[in-house]
């Protein structure tokens, strides 16, 4: 059954900052008030109108009230510095988004799940490890790195250290009262960009280059991002956990390592396609969202 979906702009507090989200509300049978809900988050540097909107819409069509929101410092949400990729801050935002859902008049607080796409899979997982309100977890095309994978991805220990030094210098300048330093989040011409190369999803106005997305990356983000490691959280996650990925996606070996460390109910589904296919390509989204919706239906009954 595909539900008709209505959207609603909402706001909620996250550690003193006002975050802005879109609530995707499925039409339910008369008399059915409380129901399950899902918080949906996307890749690093992104806003709610990108892949979070795509998956929140699909989850709502499957009958789950769903929330996509802008993290602190991104999109319509408050907070400074802007475009700071802070795993700790984004994990806290996820926790506070779940608080918002748990208090919502249409949500059964005992039936809340979380769906993370790409980088936010790590943030979502770390929160789930210590947040018993998350009763079910789905990670789609999860980017789950550790120190070894960081070295492989960013060109070795020396290159990682260069980024660390740039970030620490930018942070020190910011703390000394200077303006934040930024580089492009994505560029095909600037090698200093956080993502340097033909990352078409972010640069195509028909895909991820939406007006609300700011193509900037705070240089002071590097130390937090490069040292973030969600893998120690895996054994603490008790909620049933689904991973959907592709061997042709980003760092599948990270997904395998994380899956192996999970100590609770778990399932890893290998599909096909590139990383960006999972973000907005209809056939891939339909497959991945369908697998996730069935997982949530089974685990949030």
Task: List the defining traits of the structure above.
single chain; alpha/beta; Rossmann fold; eight-stranded mixed sheet; 35% helix; 23% strand
SSE pattern, N- to C-terminal: EEEHEHEHEHHEEEHEHEHEHH
Number of domains: 1
Give the fraction of residues assigned to helices: 25-40%
Strand content: 15-25%
**Structural class of the helices, strands and pairings?**
alpha/beta
Biggest sheet character:
8 strands, mixed
Record field, number of beta strands? 12
CATH architecture group name: 3-Layer(aba) Sandwich
Describe the fold and architecture.
The protein has 301 residues and is of the alpha/beta class. The chain contains 10 helices and 12 strands. The protein has helices at 51-61, 87-102, 120-130, 147-153, 157-175, 200-203, 222-227, 252-261, 277-280, 282-299; strands at 5-14, 17-26, 35-41, 65-69, 107-117, 134-140, 182-183, 186-187, 195-196, 217-218, 241-246, 266-271. The longest helix is centred in the middle third of the chain and has 19 residues, at 157-175.
Give a brief description:
This protein has 301 residues and is an alpha/beta fold.
How would the blueprint of this fold be written?
Blueprint lengths: L4 E10 L2 E10 L8 E7 L9 H11 L3 E5 L17 H16 L4 E11 L2 H11 L3 E7 L6 H7 L3 H19 L6 E2 L2 E2 L7 E2 L3 H4 L13 E2 L3 H6 L13 E6 L5 H10 L4 E6 L5 H4 L1 H18 L2
Parallel strand pairs: 3-4, 3-5, 5-6, 6-11, 8-9, 11-12
Antiparallel strand pairs: 1-2, 2-4, 7-10
Helix pairs in contact: 1-10, 2-3
């Amino acid at each position: 059954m595909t539900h008709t979906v209505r959207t609603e702009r909402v706001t909620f507090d996250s550690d003193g900052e006002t975050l802005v989200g879109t609530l995707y509300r499925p039409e339910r049978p008369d008399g059915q008030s409380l129901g399950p809900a899902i918080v949906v988050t996307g890749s690093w540097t992104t806003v709610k109108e990108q892949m979070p909107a795509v998956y929140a819409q699909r989850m709502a069509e499957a009958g789950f009230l769903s929330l996509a929101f802008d993290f602190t410092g991104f999109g319509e949400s408050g907070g400074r510095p802007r475009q700071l990729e802070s795993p700790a801050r984004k994990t806290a935002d996820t926790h506070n988004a779940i608080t918002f859902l748990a208090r919502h008049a249409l949500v059964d607080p005992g039936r809340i799940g979380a769906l993370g796409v790409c980088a936010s899979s790590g943030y979502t997982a770390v929160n789930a490890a210590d947040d018993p309100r998350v009763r079910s977890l789905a990670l789609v095309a999860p980017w789950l790195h550790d120190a070894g994978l960081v070295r492989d991805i960013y060109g070795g220990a020396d290159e990682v250290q260069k980024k660390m030094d740039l970030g620490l210098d930018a942070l020190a300048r910011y703390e000394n009262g200077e303006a934040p330093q930024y580089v492009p989040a994505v560029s095909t011409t600037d090698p200093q960009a956080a993502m340097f190369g033909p990352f078409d999803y972010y640069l195509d106005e028909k895909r991820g280059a939406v007006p609300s997305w700011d193509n900037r990356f705070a240089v002071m983000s590097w130390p937090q991002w490069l040292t973030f490691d969600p893998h120690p959280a895996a054994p603490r996650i008790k909620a049933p956990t689904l991973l959907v990925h592709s061997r042709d996606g980003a760092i599948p070996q990270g997904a395998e390592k994380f899956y192996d460390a999970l100590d609770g109910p778990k399932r890893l589904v290998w599909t096909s396609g590139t990383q960006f296919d999972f973000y907005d390509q209809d056939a891939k989204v339909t497959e991945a969202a369908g697998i996730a919706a069935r997982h949530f239906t089974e685990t949030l009954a």
